[in-house]
Amino acid sequence: MTIDSGALVALSNDLAATVERVADGVVAVEARSRIGSSGFFIRPDLILTADHALESDEVEIVRAGGTAESATIAGRDPSTDLALLRVASPGTPLELAPPDALRVGAIALAVARDDDGDLAASMGVVSAVGGAWRTWQGGEIDRFVRPDLSLYPRFSGSPLVDVGGRVLGLNTGGLSRRQVVTVPGTTIQRVVDALLTRGGRIPRGYLGVALQAVEGGAIVLGVEPGSPADRGGLIVGDIIAAIGGERVEDADDVHAQLGSGTVGTELAVDVRRGGSPKSLRVTVGDRPADD
To answer: What is the pTM of this model?
Structure first.
């Protein structure tokens, strides 16, 4: 097989040009005791980054050339691992790609910065695109997106961009214990809009129980004192068989009924206690900000 070196050179040049095209919109983020992260401008005064990388309220961003400045946290949603930082000096927002740009096999680049402001990039493909899913903290992610590329230290919060430099999503290792995933642009838009209109946080339904899947439902392993579950009469050993009229097979089924719209509403919780069925009414609380 003959290799067309000219085509390879052209591809290499195009990929390098893509990185250069988005470079002004990518920053380093310093807000943790260990390795920092990256972020990117979503609006002229707003930077999007990974929430799990913010271990301090004192945040510094580093732009191209090593220029550092302080930033304030404008909003955060741990359940989707997204956080907004506000800066005084405007930056260059990156363009979000349309949903149909997410295609399995499409070439993608993760672009990050180190603490000196130097660029870093990793190339691969979009290896999987699936349906909506829910994180272990109850966050709703519109599509499952898995990039097949190496995410080195400081790449959490980096943008995944297509060959045109449009943002496919935000890369993070903070949502799955087993793999790196990308939060897609549709989720980014929804969460950013919600954070900006709801005072920087998104209410999340909260019961205050520790659960484990068992045959026939999810068993209650712990109940926080004074929590909605405690006030509603749930006790350790109860097996939740249904909530809100929906059958429960594991903890994810319980979380699925606790969206932001359920805060303050009363849900029917059907349990088995000591082998006997019992119906309870629990008023859903608002998950504490540090939970």
So the answer is: 0.82
